[in-house]
Amino acid sequence: DLFLIVFVAVLGLPWLSYGESVMKYGAVGDGISDDTSALQKAWDSACNGSSKIGSVYVPAGKVFLLSSLHFTGPCKLKPLIFTIDGEMKAQSDPNKWQKGENGIIPWLIFDRVEGLVLSGRGLLDGQGKGWWDIHCRDHPGPNCIWLAPTMMTFSNCRNVILKSLRFRNSAQSHILVMGSQNVHIKDVKIKSPEISPNTDGVHITSSSDVSITHSDFATGDDCVSIGDQVHNLSVTFVNCGPGHGVSVGSLGRGGTEVEVEDIRVAHVNFTGTTNGARIKTWPGGTGYVRGIEFFDIRFSNVQNPIVIDQFYGCAPNCVQTEKAVHIEKVKYMKMSGTSRTEVAMKLECSGKNACSNVFMRDIDLSPASGIGSVSSLCSFVQGATQGTIRPSSCIQ
């Protein structure tokens, strides 16, 4: 399988830097001229096989100003190599963007592409401040917006490698993986201000066989957020902070049925985040979240290190309901560090059978500077513990 050969080769290389330059298609690269059509032509040529090399190259030393780009497949060549060594900047004026479809305004969207290697030494700058300044969260009013461009979207793709690129200041989520399989993200760096709204590092939904590894996230929202219909995801060797942690959810809003399974979060450092290892569901949802493992996690000055919240989005005035997303087979193992709130472990389940088979082993959380002591808070959590658990476990 050619993709597997390239996959192994790329994982062993710091970057790839060959391909047909976008300059050939009329790109200027001065950061002022709009290079959108040149990038689109370069992609179309590589995708339909008319380019001899079957790849796209964004050269170093230049800045490419771009508005929305749809890199659409299926392509004749697999894998298609897309190398970014230069800087790509999003159009900064919100008035120059078209309205989004299905709740998404894409900046760079790869749609129905099978076999893609996207790598390089380049920087992608979402120039999001213009959007943050009119976001309804911080600027409520008749002309505020909730929806802003997602920096890079993989929609209905298969066999994707994203490696070594740097992302900053997305208007909204930096990377979105939706309806896709076999997507591998390695050695990326994502940076946006802590106050920037909804700037998740990577959001995954309706996808399977996804890995995120050896990467750094500093964002205004979740470093990694895991939506519905996600199966077989690993997040390993990641630094997270600032941000809202690694979150499974939110899930089950509006009574929807949820299927999330086989999620592994391991070897992660959380620094100054609002949350660490979090699972969050709305009351009234159905379905399941199961087979979740948090292993070898370090917290430094984290507000809520360990959280299960089955009252997301409604507390303290939640409507009473027996229905809940069933959370089961959750493991917390080898976790240590400091909490900057007194309740370091908060496992709040909504009823007798809502959370089962929760296992804890070797947990050691202590108060951050200025906090007197730490405690745990549980409701309706069934499971077991092993080894040292500090603060003492409240699992039944």
Count of helical segments?
Answer: 3
Overall pLDDT level: 93
From the alpha-carbon coordinates, what is the Rg to the nearest angstrom? 22 Å
Low-confidence stretches: 11-17
**In percent terms, what proportion of residues is strand?**
over 45%
End-to-end distance = 50 Å
Share of helix, binned: under 10%
| Sheet with most strands | 19 strands, parallel
Q: Could you state the oligomeric state of the chains shown?
A: single chain
Topology, number of strands? 30
Inertia-based shape? elongated
Protein name: Polygalacturonase
Family: Belongs to the glycosyl hydrolase 28 family.
Keywords: Cell wall, Cell wall biogenesis/degradation, Glycosidase, Hydrolase, Secreted, Signal
Subcellular location: Secreted, Cell wall
Describe the structure.
Its main location: secreted. The protein has a 19-stranded parallel sheet that branches. Strands 5-8-11-14-17-19-21-23-25-27-29 form an 11-stranded parallel sheet. The chain is mainly beta. It contains 3 helices and 30 strands. The chain has helices spanning 2-12, 36-47, 129-132, and strands at 20-21, 30-34, 55-58, 63-66, 69-72, 80-84, 87-90, 105-111, 114-119, 123-125, 149-155, 158-163, 166-168, 175-178, 181-186, 189-191, 202-205, 207-218, 224-226, 230-240, 246-251, 257-271, 275-281, 286-302, 304-309, 326-339, 343-348, 355-367, 375-379, 381-390. Mean pLDDT is 93; it is low at 11-17.
